[in-house]
Amino acid sequence: MTKNLPFLSVPQIDLGLLFLRVSGAFMLFHVHGWPKIMHYSEELVRIEDPFGFGTSFSLLAAIFAEVICAILIALGLLTRLASLPVICVLLVSMLIVHTQWSIAEGQFGWLLMIIFGSIALCGPGKFSLDAVLQRKRVA
Fold first, then answer.
1. What is the pLDDT of residue 1?
2. pLDDT tens-digit profile of 112-121?
3. Residue 48 within a domain
4. 74 is in which domain, residue-wise?
5. Which residues cross the membrane (predicted)?
6. Which residue numbers in the chain have pLDDT < 70?
């Protein structure tokens, strides 16, 4: 049966990590990152500034995590490193900015934290640019 379906011979953990990376990065980019770019002025007025660095800094930090890092994660490039700003932005959002939210109200944020925490712990898998670069370094 695997002769007819060659993708079944691929280690399933690597397919799972690819799916996790691409789907998680897409959701982060589509739901959070892209709207911040498209509506920058409106977001600048609405975004919280929990550390007093200014709303511009807060918004640019969120855009960096939700756009640049999301793209890097989807590509599997600098994956573990790119996961850290995403996790930081999510932690600030969930533990400092939205402390009044119940788990149900913040479930999307918590699920994103689980996804990107898993990616940071497990790495990108073999279907990633990180793996390609690693193979080139070894060869």
1. 45
2. 999 999 999 9
3. yes
4. 9-138
5. 12-31, 51-75, 82-101, 107-127
6. 1-10
Residue in 49, 27, 47 with CA at minimum distance from that of residue 39? 47
Count structural domains, the chain: 1
In a domain, 119, yes or no: yes
- Residue 5: what pLDDT? 62
Residue 126 main-chain phi, psi, to 5 deg: -80, -10
Q: Does 3 fall in a domain?
A: no
Helices 55-63 + 79-92 axis angle, to 10: 140
**Per-position DSSP letters for 4-57, written without gaps between them:** T-GGGGS-HHHHHHHHHHHHHHHHHIIIIIHHHHHTHHHHHHH---TTSS-HHH
Helix (H, G, I), strand (E, B) or coil at 98: coil
- Integer Cα distance of 139 and 121 in angstroms: 26
Is position 108 within any domain?
Answer: yes
How much is the CA Rg of the chain, to the nearest whole Å?
17
